Amino acid sequence: AMPSTAMPSTATPTFALTPAPMRAQAPQTLTDAQLAKGAAQKLYLLIPTRSELEGVKAFCTAHAGDVPVFVKLQDEGIALLLSREFWCHAGEAALNELRERYGQSGVVLR
């Protein structure tokens, strides 16, 4: 009888069904992509190469906020969604700074 009482498997499902912990975890179950899809605004940046990505991340870290940042790599032709920690505050000053770096057409907030 020892092994069956030591097995936690019977306790686990009842704990998983408890409503309170489930609700508390709900926000974290959304992926960055799902959160980005639901965001009111999104920032799209067109950068020449992947080597510029670190600069974008540093900029976004300095202007942290809730706007998802999509980066299109011109040379590779692919778009990336930056992870949540690099989403930025797309205020006018920040946007102007980005436009100086990547050009008017390389910075789109919509």
Please specify the SSE layout and strand pairing:
Blueprint: H1 2-6, H2 11-16, H3 19-29, H4 32-38, E1 43-47, H5 53-62, E2 64-67, E3 69-73, E4 78-81, H6 92-102, E5 107-109
Parallel strand pairs: 1-3
Antiparallel strand pairs: 1-5, 3-4
What would your notes on this structure say?
The protein is of the alpha+beta class and 110 residues long. Helix content is 45%, strand content 19%. It has six helices and five strands; from the N terminus they run ααααβαβββαβ. A four-stranded mixed β-sheet has the order 4-3-1-5.
Q: How would you briefly describe this protein structure?
A:
The chain is an alpha+beta fold. Helix content is 45%, strand content 19%.
Comma- or semicolon-separated keywords:
110 residues; alpha+beta; 4-stranded mixed beta sheet; 6 helices; 45% helix; 19% strand; globular
